[in-house]
């Protein structure tokens, strides 16, 4: 087992490992137990009662966090002509077609999200082995394969996050930074939770959200009561 720092141990000592905290209380405690000196990310992990090996139990979606993520996403857009111009005007960081496809094929993935116009997906689809494992592949279900590239860029820059259950039935996403006040973190958590609940597969049986944890980047995990689905300032 890896040796924990004194700062981590001190932070962990403030958490009752046997308690399930209400969401507002959990994000407040996450801020208080952040052992890092920098403005760490606040992350959420859910264990879902689904079998992701079955197509009818895959959970994948997007949500625009009401207070953003605290991070300016680097957005790449596969587009040409007037669509490329629109992406540039919207603030996309990288715009192109064959040139970007060639660069990514060589292993470059220095961006946070990718958008593509439908006419280029025949070419972009060949990048699946590079982009797929990094959850960067444009997908119509997440609004990143679209003719309205300007809206897609604005949404991502404005705090849109993608999430997808992994092979172990875990779902991870960020809800902001330690510098956010607790109410904003709780409201971001509530927005993401609402969408995850909305996407519950009909084939999922039993308890859907089996475990929920909030933590900062290098901080200890805080167990959240999975039964609390209405989140404001209740503790």
From TrEMBL:
CDD domains membership: Ribosomal_L1 (cd00403)
InterPro entries, per the entry: Ribosom_uL1_bac-type, Ribosomal_uL1, Ribosomal_uL1-like, Ribosomal_uL1/biogenesis, Ribosomal_uL1_3-a/b-sand, Ribosomal_uL1_CS
Cellular component terms (Gene Ontology): ribosome
SUPFAM superfamilies from the UniProt entry: Ribosomal protein L1
Record's keyword terms, sorted: Repressor, Ribonucleoprotein, Ribosomal protein, RNA-binding, rRNA-binding, Translation regulation, tRNA-binding
Pfam entry (one): Ribosomal_L1
Record-linked Gene3D superfamilies: 3.30.190.20, 3.40.50.790
Origin: domain of life: Bacteria
KW RNA-binding (keyword) present: yes
This protein's record includes keyword Repeat: no
Record NCBIfam families: rplA_bact
UniProt family annotation: Belongs to the universal ribosomal protein uL1 family.
Self-association and partners: Part of the 50S ribosomal subunit.
Functional description taken from the UniProt entry: Binds directly to 23S rRNA. The L1 stalk is quite mobile in the ribosome, and is involved in E site tRNA release. Protein L1 is also a translational repressor protein, it controls the translation of the L11 operon by binding to its mRNA.
Protein name (database record): Large ribosomal subunit protein uL1
Lineage: Bacteria, Bacillati, Actinomycetota, Actinomycetes, Micrococcales
């Amino acid at each position: 087992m890896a040796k924990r720092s004194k700062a981590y141990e001190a932070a962990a000592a403030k958490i009752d490992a046997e308690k399930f905290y209400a969401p507002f209380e959990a994000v407040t405690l996450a801020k208080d137990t952040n052992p890092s000196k920098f403005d760490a990310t606040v992350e959420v992990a859910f264990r879902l009662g689904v079998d992701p090996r079955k197509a009818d139990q895959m959970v994948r979606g997007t949500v625009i966090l009401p207070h953003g993520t605290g991070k300016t996403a680097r957005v790449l857009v596969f587009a040409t002509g007037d669509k490329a111009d629109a992406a540039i005007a919207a603030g996309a960081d990288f715009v192109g077609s064959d040139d970007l496809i060639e660069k990514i094929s060589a292993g470059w993935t220095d961006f946070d999200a990718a958008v593509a116009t439908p006419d280029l997906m025949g070419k972009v689809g060949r990048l699946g082995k590079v982009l797929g494992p990094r959850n960067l592949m444009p997908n119509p279900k997440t609004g990143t394969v679209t003719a309205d590239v300007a809206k897609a860029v604005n949404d991502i820059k404005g705090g849109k996050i993608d999430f997808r259950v992994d092979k172990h039935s875990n779902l991870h996403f960020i809800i902001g930074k330690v510098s956010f006040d607790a109410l904003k973190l709780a409201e971001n958590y509530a927005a993401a939770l609402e969408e995850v609940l909305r996407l519950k597969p009909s084939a999922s049986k039993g308890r859907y959200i089996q475990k929920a944890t909030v933590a900062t980047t290098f901080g200890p995990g805080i167990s959240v009561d999975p039964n609390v689905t209405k989140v404001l300032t209740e503790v």
